[in-house]
Specification:
single chain; 2 domains; two-stranded antiparallel sheet; Heat Shock Protein 90; five-stranded mixed beta sheet; 7 strands; alpha+beta
Length: about 325
């Protein structure tokens, strides 16, 4: 395909000047075509010398003066050789006399600049295209590296919270602690199977949230009420895994009290391609701000920026004694 493009391009370069000469009534077509064919090797020599050698070896390495001197020398050699060749043909075929040497060299020099200019334009376009592809690859690799780092950061944070929950159960309810270990093993299986996936089904993600909420409920007393409003039937949407778990963890971390009545609420809605997850918990007066909730939420914000740039909305507010966090993902 590349070879055919080159052949077609040079055919146009050869035939077009002949047609122009004929349209102006200067020469017969055979003579004009013969003149173009004679000039073609010189044009090709200049073009490919610059395209494959001079531009890369000199111009792109900032040896500008040497590049200009080399190009001028090559053009002068080509023009002089062409003058001698045309003079030879004209002398032996009894055609019109050649124009003065200086006039021929001047105009031929200008025409021989064209293949040099075209070669530079093509090489610059190719170079910019290659640089753009390389930059995109570097950006994609960095994105993947950042996401992998965030996943590795999320997993120990998640298991640390879950193990703390189990540890607190061992002392006063060993049976629940045993049940918690079984539930944690299911969650670990989900992590192992899905945490490296770019996308999982929304159904799997909601399943995981329900299992985690059930695990966390094992340590709650009657003073805490947990409300869950997840659809029974979900559309076949996919989503990046483990996006909502940090909001659930945060609610359990900051919204549960051993002495006061508290309430946690989790809901999920789907509107077309949008997924809206909402977490609410009672505000318990502490010295720690809910708006800067540590590794989990910071991790979530970074992942959202990388995975859904311009396609997510994360908001938090305090209203009527409740801390409300809402995350909207636009697929």
């Amino acid at each position: 395909m590349k070879l055919l493009t080159h052949i077609a391009s040079w055919a146009v370069v050869c035939i077009l000047p002949a047609l122009i000469f004929i349209s102006e009534g200067n020469q017969r077509f055979e003579e004009a075509l013969s003149r173009s064919l004679t000039s073609l090797p010189f044009l090709m020599f200049l073009f490919y010398s610059c395209y494959y050698w001079l531009i890369d070896k000199l111009w792109f390495k900032k040896h500008y003066l040497l590049f200009i001197l080399m190009v001028v020398a090559l053009i002068l050699c080509a023009s002089y050789s062409k003058y001698e060749l045309f003079s030879y043909f004209n002398l032996h075929k009894g055609k019109l006399k050649m124009p003065p040497f200086h006039a021929f060299m001047y105009f031929d020099f200008l025409s021989n600049l064209l293949p040099v200019v075209f070669a530079m334009a093509i090489r610059y376009a190719q170079r910019n295209f290659s640089l753009e592809i390389a930059q995109k690859e570097v950006k994609a690799q960095k994105l993947q590296a950042d996401l992998t780092q965030l996943k590795y950061q999320l997993q120990p944070h998640f298991f640390f919270n879950a193990l703390n929950n189990i540890y607190s159960l061992i002392a006063f309810d060993p049976q629940k602690a045993q049940q918690s270990v079984h539930s944690l093993s299911k969650l670990m299986r989900h992590f192992m199977q899905n945490s490296d996936q770019k996308q999982i089904s929304l159904t799997e993600e909601v399943d995981f949230l329900q299992q985690y909420i059930s695990l966390m409920q094992l340590r709650l007393t009657d003073k805490t009420t947990v409300r869950i409003d997840f659809p029974n039937q979900l559309p076949p949407l996919t989503i990046a895994p483990l996006l909502f778990i940090s909001l659930v963890e945060n609610a359990f971390k900051h919204g549960v009290s051993a002495t006061e009545a508290t309430e946690l609420s989790f809901s999920l809605r789907v509107e077309g391609n949008k997924v809206l997850f909402r977490s609410e918990n009672s505000i318990i007066p502490t010295n720690e701000s809910l708006y800067s909730s540590g590794i989990g939420i910071d991790n979530l914000k970074k992942r959202l920026t990388l995975l859904y740039p311009g396609k997510h909305q994360y908001t938090v507010e305090e209203r009527d004694g409740k801390y409300i966090a809402q995350l909207t993902i636009d697929n």
